[in-house]
Specification:
alpha/beta, Rossmann fold, 5 helices, 5 strands, 21% strand, globular, binds flavin mononucleotide
């Protein structure tokens, strides 16, 4: 059965290293007949979570009217979620963290999802996976399927591209 796949790409560099791997994952997933979408956060205008707690009332709605609510709806319906980030100072990007904060309406309602993590580094992830895994760990019954890390220029590493394409194809 076709799966719904949501990919969150948090580099500012469209077509950069992590974003290239996101595209490979989406390509593989689509060519296997799945419904896959990538959100490139840098092109989406959104503000930080204001901690107003309105999303914790019975309506569970964020008062901010932007595209984030569409992404969160998609994530709720997804079978597979991919978080992708370049590593900055051994952490995820500020953009991905700001997005995770905006997930406050749904973070603990996400249930039975398969997760993939994509990172791009100059040399090392350091402890960067800890924060991403913590966020995933707040969801219900998560399964971490794989972590892909590319060192340097992704486009010149066909083996890495294929590995990520195959993961998308077989997700
Ligand atoms: C602000 C900043 C901080 C960085 N910190 C690290 C780091 O801690 N470790 C590392 O290996 N690379 C670091 N890098 C290098 C990037 O992770 C690397 O260039 C990566 O391939 C960029 O991915 P992208 O093309 O997906 O944006 C840093 C780059 C920037 C701009």
């Amino acid at each position: 059965m076709a799966k719904k796949v949501v990919v969150i790409s948090s580099s500012p560099r469209k077509g950069g290293n992590s974003d290239t791997l996101c595209d490979e994952f989406v390509k593989g997933a689509k060519e296997a007949g799945n419904d896959a979408v990538k959100y490139f956060l840098e092109e989406i205008e959104f503000d930080s979570c204001k901690a107003c707690m309105r999303c914790k009332t019975p309506e569970r709605e964020c008062y901010q009217e932007d595209q984030i609510s569409i992404i969160l709806d998609d994530m709720m319906e997804a079978d597979v979620i991919v978080y992708a980030t370049p590593i900055y100072y051994y952490e995820m990007t500020g953009t991905l963290k700001m997005f995770f904060d905006r997930c406050y309406p749904i973070f603990n309602y996400l249930e039975d999802k398969d997760y993939y993590i994509i990172t791009a580094v100059g040399s090392s992830n350091g402890d960067a996976l800890t924060g991403i895994r913590s966020f995933i760990g707040f969801s219900k019954n998560p399964t971490e399927k794989a972590v892909f890390t590319v060192v340097g220029d992704a486009k010149s590493q066909p083996d890495v591209l294929k590995e990520v394409y195959d993961a998308g194809f077989n997700c």
